[in-house]
Write a structure and sequence with these properties.
heterodimer; A: 167 residues; alpha/beta; Rossmann fold; six-stranded mixed beta sheet; 30% helix; 26% strand; B: 728 residues; Beta-Lactamase; Alpha-Beta Plaits; 4 domains; six-stranded antiparallel beta sheet
């Protein structure tokens, strides 16, 4: 018997060059490239995952990084069932944007499940963040994952956690 | 027609018209890529003239689904919305891994609702290269700038700390001397006291005397003034300033420096030194053409910075020289931002700024221009204005939007802004003059109590010298005995306390300062306390109030009044290292019983150095002195710290009392505060009570004391004595 399939839109947002595209590629295609290839606009990929009683087709919107040229375009978020916020563990400037991104997301999607991905865990020795600050997000109901798109660490887990919370 | 179809196809544009049924009719010839993507979702290929349902269209182009809401707004308009509204670019990939870079555009043409899908793949590569390079550079610069800012601010604080401990400045600590950032310490008149080697390097001065003769402070101020017309005002007010500007080297060559100027005040609150820290940015500036672009944006708020602002406004003026066009400028300054930075830290301050930047951006139209000028200042340039009213409406929207609550380190807070507006015809002004006027209007908004917008008027030109005059007069007011105290009773209304007296017939009053100005008559605290706080003279004024209140208290007690005296203590006064000693001295010299003194402090004291504050208040309480938490609910109220504070009493802020008993929120907050305080064994005073209805409500909620015009206005000590006699 085939399992029922539901389709859900998930947005990946974050500052530029934190590895959003790499995280999506790691999850969808199990590929990683060290070369930084900037995203313009949004790139949409699909991946079907098996949950306990259903299959979920995730429409993954890999949205252009927030930077001096581009802010997060609210219309990209419309209709999303879940949001992944990615930052770079080695760049404190990217942590500063977490709260602002959460606020932007909440304005569009007040109750949508979110997860926070602190990427580049493979460079853990260069991380410059306070673990306590991350715990605060977790205590606010935003699960935190220390991911590495390079090694794949915690990537699947992060996507699956979000998918389950969407269901 | 065929020609047009061919052109559209060559340009990669597909044209749909929305039908009355909400479907989309394909008006152009379908290019190959359209049907590749259509087939991919299992839909039938499209031919020109055929319709496709909205659902299928959204399956083919998922971004259209998200875009439809905004597109519908464009189609609802009667006329064309300029060149239409764009969805933003997206990349689709077909089964053969071919990428298509697409963008949707909604517009209304000749009454028809039109949706264009544009294939931008041909030009995408060029665009991508530009963004790729710029972001590569931005990444490198982010690290450099972050490192530079950190070093410069750290150095600035180290020197200020050093100066605070040293009475004379003959030399700098060795670490500063060897620092790669240039350091100059000078007197307010520019006289050079000390400097380090890096300063000589920046200006390549061979003879050290040149530094002294160069009057660098004046030179910097005059160079910075080109981009920062408000620099004089900022420095005069004793505030920290930083910015980037072009400076002339020793051979008259152009250099870019990043300069910070921090004032150091003496024990009298006057500016004793300026500490200037500079870094040469010339090499960064020259490193790449693209850096210019990156350097024209603020890394934190992602808004154009001051450099870009000048470029934008100057080119608008140059291109329209002599035009009748009205241009408006809004100068926005966040109220008490420094307090937030001090209390929550710089990271929280940065977050606040980026949030506010985002709120400001959401309120402006697409053709308006918003910039982050630096610090807590933003500017908006409004073109093609019909009237000044437009700026007034925008200011109202901005004030509302900025003051929406947000969470800072888990604390719910709300900030306000002061906005200055200037509107002129291009032919009558220039960018610098327009900015100066908007800045002056913003300053007037601050003076009038903040959280408001003011339109520039000529009268404001006279106001700045007035403020300097006011600062000077304030500094002499104590000596000239121009301050007086009035006393406002705090009436007990809980039945067991009864009337003007409470607990064992003690009479409670709050001491309130008044300035008897020789020309202007009596000035209320709202007319001078803010200036005193900014200039630092609040510490001396506060000391005078404490001392005078205790002396008058002793006099009243000798006349038979058994009283409690409440005295306001400003945050600066409380944090002054000598506060405890000063308090002890005043009590000893006046003979006022400590257990009859109540210090009214505000909650903002506890967000910084909370443990030190609790320890200090503990020492004060050990002497028997009471402590009341003033203006409770008006600021960063947090119940978390309330239970830890050695506080006897809470004063409910008048802003809640004012709306009683009709406002539901004020009722809820007031009731909760009273009950909570009682559970924590604290008493509650409601201030600003003016009506019977307010009094009845508060009495029903069992508030302990009422202060306000309903019972008594502030009065002289003699009148207090008369009241006491009447009461007894």
């Amino acid at each position: 018997m085939t399992m029922p399939r539901i389709s859900k839109k998930v947005c990946m947002v974050g500052p530029f060059a934190v590895g959003k595209t790499s995280l999506v590629r790691r999850f969808v295609e199990s590929i990683f490239s060290d070369k930084y290839h900037t995203t313009i606009g949004v790139k949409i990929s699909k991946k079907v995952i098996d949950l306990d009683e259903a299959q979920m087709q995730l429409m993954l919107w890999d949205i252009e990084g927030v930077d001096v040229f581009t802010d997060l375009r609210p219309s990209y978020l419309r209709g999303a069932a879940g949001v992944m916020i990615a930052v770079d563990g080695t760049r404190p400037a990217t942590f500063k944007q977490i709260d602002r991104l959460i606020e932007l997301v909440n304005q569009q999607l007040p109750d949508v499940p979110k997860v926070l991905l602190v990427n580049k865990f493979d460079l853990k020795s260069e991380w410059k963040l306070e673990e306590q600050a991350l715990e605060e997000y977790a205590s606010r109901g935003i699960p935190v994952f220390r991911t590495s798109a390079k090694t794949g660490e915690a990537v699947e887990e992060a996507f699956e956690t979000l998918a389950k919370s969407i269901v | 027609m065929a020609l047009l179809q061919g052109v559209l196809e060559r340009l990669g544009v597909v044209v749909f018209e929305r039908t009355d049924q909400g479907d989309f009719r394909l008006c152009s010839r379908p290019p190959r890529w359209l049907n590749v993507l259509t087939r991919q979702v299992g839909a039938a290929e499209l031919a020109s003239g055929e319709t496709i349902s909205l659902d299928t269209l959204c399956d083919v182009f998922p971004v259209v689904d998200s875009f439809m809401h905004d597109a519908a707004a464009v189609w609802a308009q009667n006329d064309s919305f300029d060149s239409g509204l764009r969805s933003g670019l997206w990349t689709d990939i077909d089964e053969n891994a071919n990428e298509y870079n697409l963008e949707a555009r909604a517009m209304r043409l000749d009454g028809a609702a039109v949706l264009l899908i544009e294939n931008l793949s041909d030009t995408f590569s060029d665009r991508h290269q530009v963004y790729q390079k710029a972001r590569d550079i931005a990444l490198i610069n982010e690290k450099l700038v972050s490192e530079l800012n950190y070093r410069q601010r750290k150095l600035q604080s180290e020197i200020v700390r050093h100066l605070a401990c040293e009475s004379t400045v003959n030399e700098l600590p060795e670490a500063v001397e060897r620092n790669t950032s240039a350091v100059l310490v000078c007197l307010p008149d520019g006289h050079v006291e000390v400097y380090n080697k890096a300063l000589i390097d920046i200006y390549e001065m061979k003879v050290e005397d040149q530094i002294v003769r160069a009057s660098l402070l004046d030179k910097w101020i005059s160079e910075a003034e080109q981009n920062y017309p408000e620099i004089h005002r900022v420095l005069r007010s004793g505030a920290y300033w930083e910015g980037e500007f072009k400076t002339k080297g020793s051979r008259n060559e152009d250099k870019w420096i990043r300069l910070s100027i921090g004032p150091v005040k003496d024990s009298e609150g006057s500016i004793a030194h300026y500490v200037c820290v500079a870094n040469d940015l010339t090499d960064y500036q020259r490193s790449s053409e693209d850096w210019h672009r990156v350097a024209e944006y603020d890394f934190n708020t992602h808004l154009p910075n001051r450099r870009q602002f000048w470029k934008h406004i100057s080119s608008a003026f140059e291109a329209n020289a002599g035009a009748e066009e009205m241009v408006g400028l809004l100068y926005i300054d966040i109220d008490y931002f420094k307090r937030i930075n001090d209390d929550f830290g710089q990271m929280a301050g940065d977050f606040l700024l980026s949030t506010i930047a985002s709120r400001i951006s959401r309120n402006i139209k697409y053709r308006d221009f918003v910039a982050h000028l630096g610090g807590d200042e933003f500017a908006i340039v409004l073109r093609f204005l019909d009237s000044e009213e437009v700026t007034a409406n925008l200011s109202d929207r901005l004030l509302n939007s900025i003051s929406e609550p947000l969470s800072l380190d888990g604390h719910p807070i709300s900030v306000t802004a002061s906005i200055g507006c200037a509107v002129e015809r291009i032919k009558d002004t220039d960018p610098r003059s327009l900015l100066r006027k908007a800045d002056l209007a913003m300053y007037a908004a601050k003076e009038l109590g903040r959280s408001q917008a003011r339109m520039y008027s000529k009268a404001m030109e006279d106001h700045l010298p007035m403020r300097r005059q006011r600062e000077h007069e304030l500094s002499e007011a104590i000596e000239r005995q121009q301050f007086v105290l009035e006393f406002q009773p705090q009436v007990a209304i809980r039945s067991e306390k009864g009337g003007n007296k409470c607990r064992g017939n003690v009479f409670r009053v709050e001491a309130l300062i008044r300035w008897m100005h020789p020309d202007k008559g009596m000035i209320a605290p709202s007319g001078f306390i803010a200036i005193a706080e900014e200039s630092g003279s609040i510490v001396h004024i506060g000391k005078w109030v404490l001392s005078e209140a205790c002396e008058q208290g002793v006099r009243m007690m000798r006349e038979g009044v058994d009283l409690n005296m409440a005295v306001n203590i400003s945050p600066k006064q409380l944090r002054h290292p000598d506060f405890y000693n000063c308090l002890t001295t005043v009590l000893e010299s006046s003979g006022f019983p400590p257990e009859r003194l109540e210090l009214e402090i505000t909650e903002s004291n506890f967000l910084k150095e909370m443990e030190a504050m609790i320890a200090l208040l503990g020492r004060i309480r050990e002497r028997g002195i009471m402590i009341a938490l003033d203006d409770f609910g008006s600021g960063f109220s947090s119940l978390n710290y309330l239970k830890r504070l050695p506080v006897n009493c809470i004063k409910i802020d008048r802003s809640f009392v004012r709306d009683l008993p009709n406002d539901i929120e004020s009722k809820a907050i007031t009731t909760s505060v009273i009950h909570l305080a009682h559970q924590l064994d604290m008493e509650v005073i409601a201030e600003g009570v003016e009506t019977r209805q307010q009094m009845d409500f508060l009495k029903k909620q069992q508030v302990d004391y009422i202060q306000g015009f309903y019972f008594h206005r502030p009065m002289s000590a003699d009148k207090i004595l008369a009241l006491m006699r009447e009461d007894s």
